[in-house]
Amino acid sequence: MISVLMPVYNGMPYLEYALDSIEDQTQQDIQLVAVDDGSTDDSYKCLRDFQALAGIEVLIVQILHKGIVGALNAGIDWCDGEYIARMDADDISLPTRLATQLSYLDRHPELAGCGAQIMFFGDESRLMEFPIDPVEVRDQMLERTTIAHPTYFLHRKVYEEFRYNPSYEYAEDADFMLRVTERFLIGNTPEVLLYYRADYKRNRSCEDLAAQAASVERARADARRRRCC
Fold first, then answer.
1. How far does the chain reach from its first CA to its final CA, in angstroms?
2. Which end of the chain has fewer CB atoms at under 10 Å, N or C?
């Protein structure tokens, strides 16, 4: 089984499209774990309506608002799959995403997980490419993003050793993957497997963007210190 972990906080109006893209996967035996992080819009209703009609297993976890780190860590505990795939509530996974990532790991047993290439959509359309080789993914991560968070497809053993750290607000994914790649080999598939809604994610204040940049750099600085010892 593959568990798809989706944190949701006020995911309307795009949540429905993200959910449909998971149900439309060609891969069979999927469990969707959707964590409603105290949404104040109609996200929970959308999740319940989807659950009632979906052709896949859907588990809805409701929590008081904790932010994405709290939602992710809470959801991990409910994932039953051998693999756990990340998904954001505003993106769209291509129909072959999960099957392609599973097949890629079957062909590369040395890897504990993989991401994928992504295509920005919304107010712009452009390809975002990441390195495929796991050594490049690990080493270049000290300077730039080398794997897109909503494309994570990781063996559950990764989450048995690592969780998201709430002290890295806005950079939880950078800190998490920097630590993971010090222990496991993680690559990327060469295929584009996710449409990334960039305009929606960029709708943040200047203060939030500055805080994110500072948090990412702190995570990288911490990783440099660990790796030099």
1. 39
2. C
* pLDDT tens digit sequence for 7-31: 999 999 999 999 999 999 999 999 9
Domain ranges of the chain: 2-227
Segment 170-176 long-range contacts (CB within 8 Å, at least 24 positions apart): 170/208, 170/211, 170/212, 170/215, 170/216, 171/212, 171/215, 171/216, 171/218, 171/219, 172/68, 172/69, 172/72, 173/149, 174/141, 174/145, 174/215, 174/216, 174/219, 174/220, 175/219, 175/222
Q: Which of 3.40.50.150, 3.90.550.10, 3.60.120.10, 3.40.190.10 would CATH assign to domain 2-227?
A: 3.90.550.10
Q: Give me the percent of the chain exceeding a pLDDT of 70.
A: 97
DSSP 111-151: -SEEEEEEEEESS--EEE----SHHHHHHHTTTS--S-GGG
Residue with tokens 């990334």: 196
Cα 95 to Cα 85: distance, rounded to the nearest angstrom: 14
**Helix residue spans in the chain (DSSP H):** 15-23, 43-53, 67-76, 97-107, 134-140, 156-161, 172-180, 198-201, 206-227
Instruction: Count CB-CB contacts under 10 A for residue 152.
Output: 24
Give the separation between CA 112 and CA 164, rounded to whole angstroms.
17
Look up the pTM and report it. 0.95
